[in-house]
Amino acid sequence: MIPRPTYTDRIMAFADAPFVKILTGVRRSGKSTILKMLMEQLVTERNISPEQIVSYRFDSMEYEGMTARELYAALKARTSDTQKTYFFLDEIQEIDGWEKVVNSILSDFDADIYVTGSNSRMMSSELSTYLTGRYISTHIYTLSFAEYLEFRKTHSPTEDIYRAFTDYLRQGGFPATHLQPYSQEEIYTIVRDIYNSTIFSDIVRRSQIRKVDQLERVVRYTFANTGNIFSAKSIADYLKSEHRTLDNETVYGYLEKLEKAYLLYRCSRFDIHGGEILKTQEKFYPADTALRYSVLGYDDNTVASSLENIVYLELCRRGYTVYTGKDGDGEIDFIAQKQNETVYVQVTQKIVSESTERREYDRLLAIPDNYPKFVLRTDVFAGGNYKGIRTMHVADFLLDGTF
User: Fold this and answer.
1) How many degrees, rounded to 5, is the angle at CA 141 between CA 52 and CA 234?
2) Distances (CA, A) of 354 to 39, 185, 394
3) With 0-12 CB in 10 A as exposed, 13-18 as middle and 19+ as buried, what is 163?
4) What is residue 210's DSSP assignment?
5) 5-139: which CATH architecture?
6) What is the tens place of the pLDDT at every residue in 237-273?
């Protein structure tokens, strides 16, 4: 297993604390493997006996149809009267009522509980109903660029990070696709299977959606418009132009389900001068660039929006709440906020004219505060600082741990 300390260190900080540790994220983002890493660290770093560790994987046929009462009985039988028991419960959302079970086990016994899940039953809005104040949630994203480079070291090491970044943009960051040197087509085949499993298991089957073609058309529209501002009405109007009727509320419902399955992330607009979040015209980003390309095919003309996608996900990985900024008639790609920090980011594939350069920098210069501001690009540029605005290659920004 290739270590992912970004997550294991964050979760291990709460080991033995009276909270359920919950790992969420899109299918195949590495949650199950991270659970195994946590089990290993408990044994090797905290001297926990392997006999104290109990693990289940609930997507196995062995547990199909298991009830919450049966789950409680099974876990209770594995607890100890003399020492703490560490439960690792993978894909626990398969058991209806699991929240009450883990809450009871945590209350009734000396236990430390870690769980993973991949759909709406693991959303914070659902968890707060049953586990108020008793859980710590960690969202597991697909590989960051830094993690991608670590995975590549095992089979295709490179010293040219810019060339590696080009590969990363096209291939995405699902861990399973980088355990050996797969071709691009093989990677898209694997990712397409992840996409299909998520659509049909986590959305269609659970929500009993009958018009699957409508759902997939909504997905294709959002993927094709990565980085563009649009609304449910935009999608409904587009489908109407294709002679397919779909009302706004149904579109909103589909978008919500795609978010709850972690296939899409919603990026709301923030009015910089008004200081408020706007409720219309948002951006949506796929959970990984390879999802988009596995569904729509790769196109060189999509690089600019995929760069945005990658930067958005990186800011989220680092714990920022990310918005797209509205500044009068202009737009700031990202406003990232975390506690008392704010970072402004403009992303561009390349700057080919003086007017384009002025547009990118002037929008940031017009913001009347002294928070860090970045222009990220992938072409050759001179200098790294313009009136306090840092200019960086996107790859360097992704590897920079100082912000």
Assistant:
1) 140
2) 55, 39, 20
3) exposed
4) S
5) 3-Layer(aba) Sandwich (3.40)
6) 988 888 788 889 999 999 999 999 999 999 999 888 7
